[in-house]
Amino acid sequence: MAISKILHMKQARSGYMAKHLANGLKYIMNPDKTENGRYISGSNCLTDNVLQQMLDTKRHFGKMDKRQGYHLIISFEEGEVSEDTAFEIVGHFVKEYLGPDFEAVYAIHNDTEHIHGHIIFNSVRCTTGYKYNYKNGEWDQNIQPLVNRLCSEHGLSTLNMDKVQEKRHRRRMGEQKEPDDKSRRISDRDTRIMHDVDTAVKDAETYEEFLEVLEIMGYEIHGKKHLAVQEPGARRARRLEQLGEEYTEEMLRCRIEQPPVPSVTSDGRGSELVYIFIPYRQRHLTRYQKECFVRKYRAGKTRTDTKTWKYRANLRAIKQLEEEYLFLAEHQIHTKEQFDEIILQVDKEIAVLCEERKLKEKKNKPYQTLMNLLEKIDEAAIEAGLYLKGYPEFREEYVQYKHLVDKLRGLGYSIADMRTIACQIELEKRMLENRRKELLKEKRIALKLKEDIRQKQQVKKIEAVKCWFREGR
Fold first, then answer.
1. Residues 436, 437, 442: CA angle, nearest 5 degrees
2. With 0-12 CB in 10 A as exposed, 13-18 as middle and 19+ as buried, what is 206?
3. Confidence at residue 187, expressed as pLDDT on a 0 to 100 scale
4. Contact 261, 255 (CB under 8 A)
5. CB neighbours of residue 66 within 10 Å
6. CA–CA separation, 117 vs 81, rounded Å?
7. Distance CA 62, CA 264 (A)
8. 378: phi then psi, degrees, rounded to nearest 5
9. What are the CA-CA distances from residue 237 to residues 11, 186, 226 (Å)?
């Protein structure tokens, strides 16, 4: 029996627009989960360049924003199917359901107790430019029935759709049938969710990436005012704020923004034996929990402090003290007037850097056309290489690539010459930007120290006035 589930990938709120789509493709094509790429294939695209092809399709039809793609998961019953059979079933599903209209990549993962397949397809049709439209009832009428038919053709059990409808009806009517060991089951579930949330917090740099990591793990995100997650196969979602104060949205945002605390490399126990808790074998561990357990086992530690976010203020204070100490030692500061001299000198150097940057931009402006031509050559190089390897369908791209190369040579430059020039321009630009950042940092530290001295002097004056009034009384 196989159960399917479909998720959508939104446009990233900041930065790279197709970030969620890129992360999803990277996740399902992980070599460690797919036998080094053995169980990875594509439909209407090449797996080596699938992201670029999907983006080219979006760009061609002018639909770069909003939903970027869809992620379809097909989970097979444990021990019922082999990797090869699952790969064949998922391939047939992609061929029948998506057909020639969508660029898709599918893969089989065997890193858990049950084999499951992942399918990611572009939100924009490569044939007509229309977007995929998921309608109400699509899963009941098309997706899961197709999965059932393919499983039946391969001699596998199928999902009873009548029971699915019955469960939905009971849920709507408010009927709840919980097992006797409800408290224990919920406790185990909460523990798994807390472990996964803690791992997602470590892996994410922003709150949006944290939600993305949870979705990649297989969780469904619910709630606008109150964040809730739902595990694959779970009947209800779980509100994270009910797991403790550390899992409210405010505290999660705070934990994600904190820099990591360096781990202790030695606990001073030497060759003393270390006892490590090993979970019982019947317990289901997620991939992230397994990786965490292996890291602890190899490090010989019984526990890891997951509350490193609490030390943010201390880390920031230590870093600030280090910067100020190095600044004072380098410039040999002895008087307050030296700060004004340093700030004035920094402003002059920044002005000189700005003029130098403008001159270099003016000098490199004639190369801009050549740089654009080199960029187009690089974009067409992959298709041209495929034509040379024996793929005749890329002949048009190969002809375009040769035309661009000849055009560049006609201007008196080879590809190697332009790459050297481009690297030199980028290196000069980077050096100027790094120097500007260093100067701005020096100015910031000088202003901070100057303000600290002013505040200390003001406090001393106030204390002197208070002392004078006390003595006068």
1. 100
2. middle
3. 59
4. no
5. 11
6. 12
7. 51
8. -65, -35
9. 24, 12, 11
CB count in 10 Å sphere of residue 196: 22
Give the SS3 label for residue 31: coil
Distance separating alpha carbons of residues 29 and 123, to the nearest angstrom: 19
pLDDT at 132: 92
pLDDT value at position 103? 93
Among 318, 1, 313, 288, smallest CA distance to 164 is for 1
**Could you give the CA distance from residue 239 to residue 191 in angstroms, rounded to a whole number?**
13
Nearest to 33 by CA among 120, 112, 114, 121: 112
Per-residue pLDDT, 296: 61
Residue 287 Cα to chain centre, angstroms: 17
- Angle 354-359-364 from CA coordinates, rounded to 5°: 125
- The HSE-up count of residue 13 (CA atoms within 13 Å, CB side) is 7
CA–CA gap between residue 19 and residue 414 (Å, rounded): 34
d(CA 122, CA 131): 9
- Tokens 């609490």 correspond to what residue? 310
Alpha helices in 6-100 (DSSP H): 19-28, 50-61, 83-97
Residue 118 structure tokens? 């992942």
pLDDT mean for each 10 residues of the chain (473 residues): 84 76 88 87 89 90 88 86 90 92 92 84 91 87 90 86 78 56 56 84 78 79 84 80 82 69 41 46 59 61 51 75 87 85 89 88 87 86 79 81 90 88 88 87 87 86 82 64
Q: How far is CA 5 from CA 64, 246, 385, in A?
A: 25, 30, 37
Burial letters 48-65, b for 16+ CB under 10 A, else e: eebbebbbebbeeeebee
CA distance 390 to 382: 13
Amino acid in the structure at residue 366: P
Cβ atoms of 8 and 197 closer than 8 Å: no
Q: 176 to each of 2, 15, 161, 417, how far by Cα in Å?
A: 25, 44, 20, 72
DSSP conformation class of 258: S
Is residue 470 within 8 A of residue 462, CB to CB? The reply is no
Spatial contact of 125 and 101, defined as CB atoms under 8 Å apart: yes
- List % helix, strand, coil for the chain (3-state, nearest 5): 60, 10, 30
Residue 13 DSSP SS3: coil
Residues making up the chain, counted from first to last:
473
Q: Which two tokens stand for residue 176?
A: 């709840």
**What residues pair up with 69 in beta bridges, in sequence order?**
9, 122
The DSSP element (H or E) to which 130 belongs, if any, is: none
Give me the phi and psi of 15, to 5 degrees please. Answer: 75, -140
CA 15 vs CA 3, 8, 11, 257: distances in Å: 34, 19, 10, 17
